[in-house]
Amino acid sequence: MISKDTYFTLYIKNNFYFFYNIICALEICS
Question: Based on the structure, what is the number of domains in the chain?
Fold first, then answer.
Protein backbone atom coordinates (compact mmCIF):
# COMPACT_ATOMS: atom_id res chain seq x y z
CA MET A 1 0.00 0.00 0.00
CA ILE A 2 1.37 3.40 -0.97
CA SER A 3 1.75 5.95 1.81
CA LYS A 4 0.06 9.33 1.73
CA ASP A 5 3.41 11.12 1.79
CA THR A 6 4.64 9.20 -1.23
CA TYR A 7 1.35 9.77 -3.08
CA PHE A 8 1.53 13.50 -2.29
CA THR A 9 5.14 13.68 -3.49
CA LEU A 10 4.27 11.95 -6.77
CA TYR A 11 1.26 14.27 -7.17
CA ILE A 12 3.41 17.39 -6.75
CA LYS A 13 6.12 16.00 -9.04
CA ASN A 14 3.60 15.18 -11.78
CA ASN A 15 2.04 18.63 -11.56
CA PHE A 16 5.48 20.25 -11.60
CA TYR A 17 6.37 18.55 -14.89
CA PHE A 18 2.90 19.36 -16.23
CA PHE A 19 3.29 23.10 -15.61
CA TYR A 20 6.95 22.97 -16.66
CA ASN A 21 5.91 21.57 -20.04
CA ILE A 22 3.32 24.34 -20.46
CA ILE A 23 5.93 27.00 -19.66
CA CYS A 24 8.36 25.43 -22.14
CA ALA A 25 5.65 25.37 -24.81
CA LEU A 26 4.83 29.03 -24.22
CA GLU A 27 8.51 29.97 -24.37
CA ILE A 28 8.92 28.15 -27.68
CA CYS A 29 5.77 29.68 -29.17
CA SER A 30 6.62 33.22 -28.09
Answer: 1
